[in-house]
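Side project, low priority. Logging it here so it doesn't get lost.
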Amino acid sequence: MGAGGSADAMKFSDVLILVGVGVLCAGFIIHGWVDTTSIDYEENPEYSKSLTLLDGDKVMFDVECIKDNDDMIASDDCSGDVVIYNGLEEIETQSYQLMKGEQFSYTFDSKDSGSYQATITIDNGEAEAEIDIKRVLMLDFIIYPIGIAILLFGLQKRRVEQESAPVDAEI
C-alpha cells in the first residue's frame, strides 16, 4: 500500500471468485461482439473475413444500405455481391440490390469443415456489412460452465474459511 500501510494477503477464495467472474464476463463479450463494417464504393468497396467452419455451421451476412451526407449527388441504391471462397475456388455468389434503408440477409450453410474466405463487395452506394457465425457444436459455450464452476468453488471455499475463522470477543 502507499504511504507505508499494509494490507492482508489476498485469500485464495477471493482469487477464485475474481477469476470466475472474469471468465464469465469474457464469455459474454466474446459472444456478444459482432463488428459492423462500413463499405463505400469510393473509399472501401470490399470487406473480407477469413472463416474457419465445421460441417453444418451457418454464416449470416447482413448488408444494410445507409444514407449518404450528400443525398442530392449520390445514387439512392446500393448493389454488390456476397462471395464465398474455399481456397481459390469460388463456391457461392449472392447478389444484392437495395434502396436506402433496406436490408439484405443471406445465410450460408457449410457442407464441409475447413477454411473459407467471405467477401462482401459494393458496386454502388454506401452500406454497413455484418458477418456472424452460428456454430453447430456449442464448443465455444464451454466457457460458461467453466466460469460458473470456478466461481462456485471460490464461494464455497470462502464459506468454509469464514466458518472456521476464530471469533474474537471483546470483554
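Brief comment: The CA atoms of residues 46 and 121 lie 4 Å apart.
Revisit when time allows.
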